[in-house]
Each structure stands twice: as C-alpha cells, then as structure tokens.
Design goal:
By secondary structure, the protein is an alpha+beta fold. It has 3 domains: 3-89, Beta Barrel (OB fold (Dihydrolipoamide Acetyltransferase, E2P)), CATH 2.40.50.100; 118-207, Beta Barrel (OB fold (Dihydrolipoamide Acetyltransferase, E2P)), CATH 2.40.50.100; 330-543, Chloramphenicol Acetyltransferase (2-Layer Sandwich), CATH 3.30.559.10. It has 13 helices and 28 strands. Helix 2 packs across helix 3 (209-215) and helix 11 crosses helix 12 (434-449). The longest helix has 16 residues, at 329-344. Residues 91-114, 218-249 and 298-308 have low confidence and may be disordered. It catalyses: N(6)-[(R)-dihydrolipoyl]-L-lysyl-[protein] + acetyl-CoA = N(6)-[(R)-S(8)-acetyldihydrolipoyl]-L-lysyl-[protein] + CoA.
C-alpha cells in the first residue's frame, strides 16, 4: 500500500517550506530512517524523514519550490503501484494513506471475517489520518507517551499538540497535522511505542477505525480492546490535576494543558499548574506563566508538621529496602550505545599533564573584554578543535570497510542532566572565536538541562570532550562516543610543587586523558594530537592568531 509523505510542521511559526534538496529521486529505494529531503523553513534548514519502506513513486514539489504545511510532497510504495487515487483525495486523505481501489458501494464491515477488508480500509482512510510515533532523534527506536493532551472524542486542529513523547534525548511534542475528531488512542500514557507504530487516529466522526487497524496487521481483538481503555488512560495519568478544583482555562476535561518546559519548571518550584492561568494557545500554560505566577496566601503552615510525623514514625532503624526505578528512554540508549562502544571499539588511553599558568592569566585578560564569560572548558574546546585540524586522523570515524576522515570539526561537549547524559554539539568550533564558543555552549547547555535540544543540536559530532574538573576529579578515562574515534577526558586544575632549575616552584597543572579507538587511531597519532593540544593550552595566544 502506498503511503503519502506530507510537508511537516517544523517550527511553531511555519506555514510552508521550500524544498532545498531531494536526497532521493523517483524509482529509488527508500528505508524508513532515510532522509528523503531537506526543507528550508522560516527558522532553519531541516531534514525530512519518510518513516516508511518502499520505492519513491512520486515527487510533488520540485527542488526550490514551496509547499504548504500538510501538502503532499511525495508518495512511497511498491514499484509500479497506482498512486493516482491518493493525489485525487489528498485534501482529505492522511499522511500514511494506503492506496487500494475501493468499489463505489462501501463494503459492510465484517468483524468475524479472517481476511482484512482492504477496500473498506481504503475508504475509511479517505476520512481519517493515522498518527504514528515519529523519529525524533537519530538514535531513537521507541518513544514513551508522557501525556495525552487530547482525549478520544475531542476535536483536533492541524496544529494542536496531541501528546508529549519522551525520547532517548528529550521530551518533545507530537503534532497531528490533521483536523477532525480524535477517534482512537493506541498507546496509553506511560507506555512506549516503536517508531512508526500507530499511536492515534484523527478523522471524521463514525469513521470505522477497526478496518484501518486491521489493515495494519493488528489482531482482530486489538482495536476493540484499545479504544475503550484509551479514553480513561489519559486522565488517569494525572489524577492530581483532575481533582484540582482551582484549575483555570488551562485545564480541559480535567487535563492541565502546559508545555514540557512549563511542567518541569513548575515541578522544580513546587507550583500547582492547576492554579496557573495560561497565556498560550487555548489557555495553554507556557514558561512565562510559571515564571510570573504568584501563589495566593493559603493556611498551609500546619500541613508540613502533620506530614512529618508519620514519615518519622515509619522509619525503622536497620531495615533493608530498595527502590526500583524504571529505565528512561535516554538511559536505555546510553546503556546500549556505550556498551557497544566499549566492547566493540578497542580502547587505549593516553594521559598528559598541561601547565595551566598561562591559560589562567589569559582567561582573566580575555574575560575583561569578552562579551560573554569564557570558561576553561571553552578554551579546551577551541584548543581541541585546532589540534584536530592539525591532526586530522583523530577527527575520524571507523566505518567498517573504510575510515572516514572529517574535514569539518564539530565538538560534542558532554552535559550531565537529571535523566543521564547528552552531548550538545558546537559546530565548526575551529572557525569560532572563544567568545562565540562560550556563547554557543551556554545556549546549548541551557537547552540540554531543560530538554529543549533539537536533533540537529545533539548530533553530527566528530570529537567529544567530557569535563569533570569542576567536580574535583583530577583525572579519569571516558568511553568513546560513537561515531567518533576519540574522546578527551578533562580533569581539574591543581596547584602542585615542581622543581625547575634546582628551585622549588608552585604551578597549576591539569591532566587530560585521550581515549582512542585503535581501529582508526594509532598511539603515535594520539600522542601527537595531545602534544598539539598542550602547546595551545600552555601558550593560549597561539589560538588567537
């Protein structure tokens, strides 16, 4: 069955996108994770993934031309398959419409029949849109539904946020790009779904969703079992919000409508979102609403004392216990990727000591004139970027049958967040000044901690730096972050006493350890890279010319 690829909504202000490049042409084989096109929006140039396997049958918008959001830009299906009916009904058909030649009279549904009624499914798809779990990061294999913002039976607009999905990188919003009624929820809140699985169906009321699900290969009993519980699944996920009598226009059907960032800030500040007035679309609570919220006075002073007493009484000295914490999507991917790296890439380690006296003096002088505060980590990023240009063999990736030597330098800087670890990427770091690196790093680190990084901001690294010096760690070894060939572990600056020309002298030193993939980087190559890095850090003025 052929499937329609539509122009996605890639920013909150986007109304149309210009096709900057097609990566596939008609007749080419397409995989579900292939980037089929690059689209220029009002904010940036972004990649479009088809999420389907097959052959590219049709391109509806040529390179350089614009297409409205939700307009058909391509069709993928079986070689030689007739897709014209999909184009004729594209104004009402959905993004994954399956082409079947349906007879004029609609066939009566036959639940007991073992065969799938493809004609009825095609007819139903003309009035409904299937919403699938999107691929929201390059390493994502599944997503966990954190919350549904709509219930079965609710009216849905094309730009409404249907659900919030936790991926391995961040919590992101899913937009349906379709108008109609929410007919079906296939994945309850708190449950994970594989990429491309059906998570919802939107369309005209009374559309038969059972035949659509049956056509997907679902079991006959699955649609009936999933529809009814799905209605109660969303409100059950937030009983506290549903029972709050103080909810305002930001609450609809018992569910508080708020952005992921607003929810996180409210949780950190202990604010009940049910009492916050939303200023966003349809009363949705956004960050500024939480920041400006002033709680009304309430006689709650006695409550902490009442709560503390049973907590103290419940404790029994010497009692054994444990807590099982479900593994987040981010932690699953960290475990998988780093295990693969550690056990597939033969690591070896090189450690070098760097005199930081000149770097400390240079940083002080730089910060007197820099528009943003430059950290030692920013200086390490700049020095590493220049050292990679001088030693390109380290700026490489093991590709199995060949070694890819990158001509650009994208430095990943590991950041610890509540759920694990993420690596924002500072692109073309060798071409940026220290103040530009510091500014980019600050923005990326803030986004990382608020789970607001976009896929292009945490992918594409050619080298990674992990710095634990600010935590008092003198030296450590890091696991290589694929697809890089090396990672630099940076320790803290420590004052030590050395002997110089027969005299004792206090100096500041920093230890760095380079973890290398021996398949693509040899010991001498790694040592030369560290020597270059040491030269830049011990004489920082050379980074400025």
């Amino acid at each position: 069955m052929a499937e329609v690829i539509r122009m996605p909504l890639l920013s909150d202000t986007m109304t149309e996108g210009v096709i900057a490049e097609w990566h596939k042409k008609v007749g080419d084989t397409v995989k579900s994770d292939d980037v089929i096109a690059e689209v220029e929006t009002d904010k940036a140039t972004m990649e479009v993934v088809g999420y389907v396997d097959g052959t590219l049958l049709y391109i509806g918008t040529e390179k350089g031309q614009a297409a409205k959001v939700n307009q058909v830009i391509a069709i993928v299906g079986k070689p030689g398959e007739d897709y014209k009916a999909l184009l004729e009904g594209s104004t009402t058909s959905n993004s994954t419409a399956k082409k079947e030649e349906a007879p004029a009279p609609a066939a009566a549904p036959a639940p007991a029949a073992p065969a799938v009624d493809k004609a009825a499914a095609a007819e139903a798809l003309k009035n409904a849109t299937v919403i699938r779990m999107p691929l929201l990061s390059d390493t994502m294999t599944e997503g966990k539904i954190i919350a549904w913002n709509k219930n079965v039976g609710d009216t849905v607009k094309g730009d409404d946020v249907l659900a919030e999905v936790e991926t391995d990188k961040a919590t992101m919003e899913v937009v349906g790009y379709a108008d109609g009624t929410l007919l079906y929820i296939g994945v309850p809140a708190g449950t994970a779904a594989k990429v491309n699985d059906i998570i919802a169906i939107v369309g005209k009321k009374d559309t038969n969703v059972d035949v659509i699900l049956a056509a997907e290969g679902a079991q006959g009993a699955a649609p009936a079992a999933a529809s009814a519980p799905a209605e109660s699944a969303a409100p059950a996920a937030i009983p506290a919000a549903a029972s709050d009598n103080g909810s305002t226009s930001s609450s609809e059907g018992g569910r508080v409508k708020a952005s992921p960032l607003a929810k996180k800030l409210a949780q950190e500040k202990g604010i009940d979102l049910g009492k916050v007035q939303g200023s966003g679309d349809n009363g949705r609570i956004v960050k500024k609403d939480v920041d400006s919220y002033v709680p009304s006075a309430a006689p709650a002073a006695a409550q902490p004392g009442k709560a503390a007493a049973p907590a103290a009484a419940a404790y029994v000295g010497g009692q054994e216990g444990y807590t099982d914490t479900p593994v987040s999507q981010m932690r699953k991917v960290i475990a998988k990727r780093l295990s693969e790296s550690k056990f597939q890439a033969p690591h070896f380690y090189l450690t070098m000591e760097i005199n930081m006296d000149n770097a400390m003096a240079a940083r002080k002088a730089i910060n007197e004139v820099s528009p943003v505060k430059v950290s030692f980590n920013d200086m390490v990023i700049k020095a590493a970027a220049l050292a990679l240009k001088a030693n390109p063999a380290v700026n490489s990736s093991w590709m199995g049958d060949f070694i890819r030597e990158n001509h650009h330098v994208h430095i990943g800087s590991a950041v610890a967040i509540e759920d694990g670890l993420i690596v924002p990427v500072i692109r073309f770091a060798d071409q940026k000044s220290l103040s530009q690196i510091a500014s980019d790093a600050k923005v990326l680190y803030d986004k990382a901690k608020n789970k607001k990084l976009q896929p292009q901001e945490f992918s594409g690294n050619t080298f990674t730096i992990s710095n634990l010096g600010m935590m008092g760690i003198e030296e450590f070894t890091a696991i290589i972050n694929p697809p890089d060939s090396a990672i630099l572990a940076v320790g803290g600056i420590k004052e030590v006493v050395i002997v110089e020309k027969g005299q004792f002298k206090a100096t500041n030193v920093m230890k760095v350890t380079l973890s290398c993939d021996h398949r693509s980087v040899d010991g001498a190559v790694g040592a030369k890279f560290l020597g270059t890095l040491k030269g830049y850090m011990e004489n920082p003025v050379t980074m400025l010319v």
